[in-house]
Amino acid sequence: MADFKKLEAELLAAITAAEDDTRLETIRVAALGKKGSISELLKTLGTMTPEERKQEGPMINGLRDRVSEAITQKRDTLKRAATAERLVADKVDVTLPLRASALLRGHIHPVSQVIDEITAIFADMGFSIAEGPDIETDFYNFTALNFPAGHPAREMHDTFFFNPKPDGERKLLRTHTSPVQIRTMESVKPPIRVITPGRTYRCDSDQTHTPMFHQVEGLVIDKTSHLGHLKWILEEFCKAFFEVPSVKMRFRPSFFPFTEPSLEVDIQCDRRGGEIRFGEGNDWLEILGCGMVHPNVLRNCKLDPNEYQGFAWGMGIDRIAMLKYGMPDLRPFFEADVRWLEHYGFRPLDFPTLAGGLSE
Ligand code: DAH
């Protein structure tokens, strides 16, 4: 009996003195483990007479319960002490500047940004988006657009041709987005109001030309659309895109096989001080080609020119991106240099809208 008291006092003292979990666990195993001191005592119950067991049983069981309870409590105390210690040690300086999250590190390429801006502006005017393949046939890229065989305008396009197929057909990389005009008129009944942004290809490379570049085509076909409408649409577009209250535009006569009359459009700007400002100044910058869709093109799409008419325009996306965002060289657009993208790119969640602002 005295032994139990002594054992209990020793164990409780050791438990109280244990300074960490490992030590506490050693004590637990030594007392309550398979060969622990208390477990050994419990085993002796089986060899006792009923009277002895009646007397000693409650004492041994009581000892076991009190020691287990003491261990549980000590474990709890140690845990709370560790948490308290960590709370004191782990300091957060809430005055530190924010570290850029992964979301802020990714950037939208200026070409994607400008396509989104153009889409937002024309969607607001009721246009939808049409797309066509990058690999085109001679028919869609030239013939249906009223480029006669052997016409010099074909040569001006510096076309990338594929090797001819056994039947002699030679596919090509589209040199402009105008073939999508044909594909649209073939498949959609007028009235038609579409824009078609996409990749285009010409064998050309210098500071302002790359073999792959981007254009956006516009096409409006119905029964009464005329050049006055075209002028208004382009003016509204330029004001919205360049984010200026007014722009001056100049329409010059030009030639494209698929429009008659054909025009080229310049926008007024100020280039003094190495920076381009729109809506003021004495300089003119060419930004697009346009015109009334040629009757032959309508006929090629099985539309009767006596019933339908309309206009189209084509614009270089990379070029207007360079103008708007002040990028002097086109080639880095396609070099995938992350430093360039970090400098000129846009935040992913700032999707351009007319209401929320195109480029802020
Ligand atoms: N496809 C022409 C080019 O790449 C641009 C163009 C001019 C498109 C006049 C048009 C247009 O739709 O009407 O040079």
Q: How would you characterize the overall build of this protein?
A:
The longest helix has 40 residues, at 50-89. Strands 1, 4, 5, 6, 7, 8, 9 and 10 form an 8-stranded mixed beta sheet that branches. Helices cover 42% and strands 19% of the residues. By secondary structure, the chain is α+β, with helices and mostly antiparallel strands. A hairpin with a 6-residue loop joins strand 7 (259-270) and strand 8. The protein folds into 2 domains: 2-90; 107-344, 2-Layer Sandwich (BirA Bifunctional Protein, domain 2), CATH 3.30.930.10. It contains 13 helices and 10 strands. 3,4-dihydroxyphenylalanine (DAH) is lined by residues 176, 178, 217, 256, 259, 289-291, 312-314. 3,4-dihydroxyphenylalanine binds at residues 176, 178, 217, 256, 259, 289-291, 312-314.
